[in-house]
């Protein structure tokens, strides 16, 4: 509910900033600049953030940096693993996005190679969990169930992996439907649904496609580093398979801890700090929120 989200942002904004500064032991006057998500995202929520950031920057006499949400998902890894080598390849997988991005320069040049043409990966986890009556969010529960199941039990479809399909785009809607049909058929036959096997087999299909395409993107573009971010990066099977496939291909894998993978404020600050460090120009005072801001 966008309206509720905007109001919640409005109410939480000032107390959250004050608490963050207090917890970090930093005075507002010591900040180097103010970074804010300019997009993409929910227009109302973005507007609240951009307006607040402008007010703080203007009142404190600090430069303002409008940053891209997806680029900051990549940059956050620096907080955990140090400077990101460039170019970096990034696989961003959450409830809202599933993208492969090539970043020759994290502050000014992030190129989308491919993304989902229907559902995001996290969305597929959530929808399959709903069909299995496992609750929301579905990712963590399916991850847990899958540990008890056989990933080879059911062969679910791997979307867009044919020789003529786009190399870097994803599709999870057909997979979600295939899983739902399989479950319906079991229930119609009066048989018990093997939750662990369905979870493991579904998860395997998602993770297989994500890691295969991410490694392919690295090889095609001569990049020897892959970072994975977004809420789905918490998935244990994704981490394990990515690790194995990257090792086989001579690619170094970087995955931030789960708290930094999901949406957070530190990632916006991380990209803002990088803009300051690289002397990038600040945003103009007429910076506006753009719900569909491209990278
Ligand atoms: O980045 P995020 O916290 O929020 C946005 O979507 O922007 O990602 C949330 C998504 C949800 O769809 C959730 O089911 C998924 O990440 N997720 C997982 C796991 N933990 C969270 N998916 C698979 N395995 C997990 N362990
Ligand atoms: Zn996000």
TrEMBL record:
Its main location: cytoplasm. It catalyses: L-threonylcarbamoyladenylate + adenosine(37) in tRNA = N(6)-L-threonylcarbamoyladenosine(37) in tRNA + AMP + H(+). Keywords: Acyltransferase, Cytoplasm, Iron, Metal-binding, Transferase, tRNA processing. Gene3D superfamilies: 3.30.420.40. InterPro entries: ATPase_NBD, Gcp-like_dom, KAE1/TsaD, Peptidase_M22_CS, TsaD. Substrate binds at residues 92-96, 126, 139, 143, 235. Residues 1-269 form the Gcp-like domain. Its EC number is 2.3.1.234. Its cofactor is Fe(2+). Required for the formation of a threonylcarbamoyl group on adenosine at position 37 (t(6)A37) in tRNAs that read codons beginning with adenine. Is involved in the transfer of the threonylcarbamoyl moiety of threonylcarbamoyl-AMP (TC-AMP) to the N6 group of A37, together with TsaE and TsaB. TsaD likely plays a direct catalytic role in this reaction. This is tRNA N6-adenosine threonylcarbamoyltransferase. The gene is tsaD.
């Amino acid at each position: 509910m966008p309206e509720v989200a905007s109001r919640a942002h409005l109410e939480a904004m000032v107390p959250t900033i004050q608490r963050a500064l207090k917890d970090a032991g930093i005075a507002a006057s010591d900040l180097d600049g103010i970074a804010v998500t300019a997009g993409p995202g929910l227009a109302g929520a973005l507007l609240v953030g951009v307006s607040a950031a402008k007010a703080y920057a203007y009142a404190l006499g600090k430069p303002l940096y409008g940053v891209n949400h997806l680029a900051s998902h990549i940059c956050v890894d620096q907080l955990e693993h140090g400077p990101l080598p460039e170019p970096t390849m990034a696989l961003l997988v959450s409830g809202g996005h599933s993208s492969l991005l090539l970043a020759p320069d994290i502050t000014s040049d992030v190129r989308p190679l491919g993304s989902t043409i229907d559902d995001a990966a996290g969305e597929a986890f959530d929808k399959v969990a709903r069909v299995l009556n496992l609750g929301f969010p579905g990712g963590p529960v399916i991850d847990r169930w899958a540990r008890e199941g056989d990933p080879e039990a059911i062969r679910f479809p791997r979307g867009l992996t044919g020789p003529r399909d786009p190399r870097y785009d994803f599709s999870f809607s057909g997979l979600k439907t295939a899983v739902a049909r399989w479950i319906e058929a079991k229930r119609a036959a009066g048989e018990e649904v093997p939750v662990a096997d369905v979870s493991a087999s579904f998860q395997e299909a998602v993770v297989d496609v994500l890691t295969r395409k991410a490694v392919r993107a690295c090889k095609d573009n001569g990049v020897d580093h892959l970072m994975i971010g977004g809420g789905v990066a918490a998935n244990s099977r994704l981490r394990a398979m990515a690790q194995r496939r990257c090792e086989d291909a001579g690619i170094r894998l970087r995955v931030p801890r789960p708290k930094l993978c999901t949406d957070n404020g530190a990632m916006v600050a991380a990209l803002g700090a990088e803009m300051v460090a690289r002397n990038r120009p600040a945003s103009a005072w007429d910076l506006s929120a753009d719900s569909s801001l491209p990278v």
